[in-house]
Amino acid sequence: MGTKIIAVRVGAEPKHTDFSVHESLIRLSSPFFEAALSREWKESQERIVKLPEGNAHAFRIYVHWLYTSQLCSKLQFNHVSLNDGQWEWANLVKGYLLGDYLQDIDFKDSVMDAMIDWGNEAARECSDAPPHSSIEVYQQTGKTSPLRRIVLDFTTWRIINNFPVSMNDYQFPSDFLTAVVTCLTERIRSGKVVRPGFVDKKYCHYHCHGDRTCYKDKDKASLQEACNEVLDPLRMIL
């Protein structure tokens, strides 16, 4: 991991939050930080990277994930309340958008998996959360974004299955409304019951790693390597 520490200033000054992170760890995970710290830029000289438009809570989730490979935003859904579910979804959206900005594919895919779990555990009580987040999502992502796809899938699936989805009191993006209508029309015309990927927990369907190794397989490989380091000396003795 190394011993060099950098500071990351999140939010507009003076209402910012400073974080201390091991440089090698964050550079290895984020191409954004790799670029910012590998050249003769101001950030590299001052040992501080500023994210004035960043969200401090989302970055806290990111730092926790960097060190533990766990998302600290994950709730226990046994007694989930409406506010808890909406809060969780909103933070996952902000986390994904942060990962997009930092170009950290493994983090984005980890957040996406938490969104899929949310969809199977909390969405029944909080079915308004995904469509209402479409404003933020569509403003900050491109047409092919997996985040757009899962928001659309959540919304249309809930409408088809007669869950209450309030869409009257918000000014939704026209692209989002068009996509919802198109998706619903196609499903009605086909007469087929199409289950979106999140229902069957097809995680990689929403991942952005492409042909590269999924972070889950990387974790398994790392665990196997660690086990081998412990077991190899024992095998030589036995």
UniProtKB/TrEMBL annotation:
SUPFAM superfamilies: POZ domain
InterPro entries, A to Z: BTB/POZ_dom, SKP1/BTB/POZ_sf
CDD domains in alphabetical order: BTB_POZ_ZBTB_KLHL-like
Coiled-coil region(s): none
Domain BTB positions: 4-71
PANTHER family reported for this sequence: BTB DOMAIN-CONTAINING PROTEIN, BTB DOMAIN-CONTAINING PROTEIN-RELATED
Protein name: BTB domain-containing protein
